[in-house]
Amino acid sequence: MTRHRLLARQIKKHLQSLADKPELQDFLAAINEAYEQSDRDRRLLERSIDLSSNELSARYQQSQDQLHAIEQAQSALQNSFSLLNASLNSIHEALLVVTLDGEIELHNSNLLCIFNLNVPELPTQKIDALLDFMLPNIENPENLREAMNAAKANPEQEHQCEFKTYLGRVVEAYSRPRRLDDKLA
Asked: Which end of the chain has fewer CB atoms < 10 Å from its terminal CB, N or C?
């Protein structure tokens, strides 16, 4: 019988004279099998740890790649947003984008100038409240109010109106439906 190397060393060191006795053979065989089983269990555990480690490393690399892709997308979005803002603020027209719920989603700096609103930012994010600030600067505010009400009532249609500010500026206002995935947004 081939003995486990650790058992063979222990027998050589401690039981050399007794190792060949027949009454100890079953006992030594049981110890040998325990050592062999321990080695098999250790190898199995090491293999399991290696597999888990490889899987975790692959997942970590995948998450790092996803993070890098997200960071690149975020950088591209920031660049696009910066370009959009620069473009919107360089045109000589006022721009106002309003959601179906009446929330102001986007505007440019000329909106404030055209309506003589001497504030660095819009005083509100609701269109109805903004109209309260804008209407005193318009000669015939009912034209704008009617156009806004028509756009709210029929958001899927294009709308147009014209009005004059007290600064003498004639303003043409256009409303077009905004679609996102074939739905009004």
From this structure: N
Q: At what angle do helices 5-14 and 22-90 cross, to 10 degrees?
A: 140
The full length of the chain comes to 185
3-state secondary structure of 181: coil
Q: Which amino acid, 115?
A: F
At 14-42, the pLDDT tens digits run 888 887 888 888 888 999 999 999 999 99
Output the CA–CA distances (angstroms, integers) from residue 18 to 13, 24, 34, 50, in the order listed.
Answer: 11, 8, 20, 41
DSSP notation for 122-160: -S-SBHHHHHHHHGGGBSSHHHHHHHHHHHHH-TTS-EE
